[in-house]
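Technical note accompanying the year-one report. For the benefit of new consortium partners, we illustrate the data format agreed upon in the data management plan: each record pairs a sequence with a structure-token string. No post-processing was applied to the example shown here.
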Amino acid sequence: MKENRFIQNREELWNSFETALDEYERTRRVQTSTSVEKFVDLYRAVSHDLTVARTRHYGANLITRLNTLVIRGHNLVYVSRTGWLENIFRFYTNTFPREVRKHKKWVLTSLLLFALPWLVVSYCISQSDTFIYTVLDPVEVERYEVMYDPDAPWNAEGPNPSSQLEALGGYIRHNTSIGLMVFVSGIGFGLLTVFVILFNSVFLGSVFAHLTVVGYGSTLYPFVIGHGALELTAIVIAGAAGLRLAVALYFPGTLGRHTALRQGIRESMTLVAGFFTMFILAAFIEAFWSPLDVPNIFKYFIGSILWVLVFSYFFFAGRNEISRLSG
């Protein structure tokens, strides 16, 4: 059977199952209109359709759609009776890292958009003493120089607890606003998302490169290496979420625009919840750990561990469950 005919024959059943899933996830209980037995029958039918689609090598969009329905159904049939704490634990140990890997195409696209301009502007600044002023105005350049000057008196002082709390609020507001801007910009055909990623890449790359060239790296890098693992990775994931939303809105493929949009929003919001958490954790590290007056070698050691943990988390977390469900 051809894929289009297969979709036509089974589309109504899939929509019924998806409606039942949406109803449960909204109310946290199965309504009388969809009995437990009927729901389980739908779950088994969609699981069978997923097997058929894989066996017949149907398109990736169809397989992804059915696989998403099966995983959501599994979570309802087998996991719905767990407490809210366990559900939160499952989200961060399974769902979020799985979704990041699932959207690796958009994650890698976002990473390239973020990394390449950073490298280009860094090279330009390293070759010209005046290039920095084509990106930042002199007042802003001076502000960052004063902030990270190793000889500045405040760099020799320990952090003030009251100022740390104030800084925490500022970091959370700043970080999450960047992530939200990158994500929401996806409604503009993804072009706004690309622009915001490029803007942040050029800005951060210019600041880092200039401070390194003027010899302030000994103050800058020990400060940023700790929270940078979470913050920079979160920016990339926010970009991936924005691109995913843009694809769902304007390039629905064979799913139909309404179905693709619903699926895209659901998947994007999973990424949003994850990167918002990363931004908040990064803010805590930046406010309470990064300014501590400890030997730089210790900060580099802890920062390196955090980078390894972040990469390991997205590479390994949740693999056992997804293998079991998809096998």
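Partners are asked to follow this layout when depositing records. The longest helix spans residues 217-250.
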